[in-house]
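debug: dumping io for the single-chain case to check the tokenizer round-trip. Nothing else runs in this session.
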Amino acid sequence: MLKTPDNRRADDQQAPQPDRSEVTDRPPPARFLREMRTAFGLTWDHIGLVVAISVTIAAIILAIGSIWDVLPPQAWGMRGALVVVLWSVLMLLVGGTFGVAWQICAREEVAWGDLFRNAARLWRASLMLSILHLAFVFLIGINFRFYGHLGLAGQLGAMVCLYITIFWLMMGAYQYPLIAAQELGALDDPGHQARRGAGAALKRSFFLTIGDPMFAAELMGMSLIVFAIMLVSVLPMMICAIPLLAICSCQGARAQLVRYGVLAAFDTGEPPPDSRAYQLDDRSGPSHGTGREV
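debug: decoded output
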């Protein structure tokens, strides 16, 4: 039997319509200000631990650095060895700090002793990542110096090197948080262990950066500001600069991993932070539906 327009309209009205309030499984995108507000709140909630870690790092570095003054002036080999030891210890402590920061962002119970336990677990990947950073600085410095003597072509080459450096810094905002996440087992699946090491962190940081360049740029800018404050003044370093930088970076990295479904979001029993949830498109019919932000 042929259907008239009236019959088709009646059938459409009787067909089951999708629930417009149905929320898809897609998590909301990471919002930089929201994540930084959460990071600063977590820092304040753990302010005692943050200060203790900062003072511990400063005391250890100053204790090792004080040996420099008692060495003979011409003992360049010993001074070079001391620099290597100082850098290695600093990287171990940085790795331990990021391990503690990741546990804080994961809402786990942490204590002062976790600084050293995480440093022992992350030392290999942390040191390797620091070596890769030093190698990058060395290579990019050679390229800048080379292109600086080449006129217009050199300016173009230097511009390319500058873009590469900025992108590397954007990746760097994720690298130590990813080291902490993968070495502490946060990225493991049941029966499958995620890849470990500095190389795996570099690969993951690359994909997170190209997935949301603006968020990575904002996280890099915040990290550079905190790092600059730490360099020009001793007081912020003694109070909370290094742990604050670690917590902000870990919170940003965790938000991106949640966005891409690598980690599960915290179940707070509340709607998404910005009440504009991902809902079914009003124009979608019973046989097809697309998600959009409304």
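debug: round-trip ok. The CA atoms of residues 121 and 150 lie 46 Å apart.
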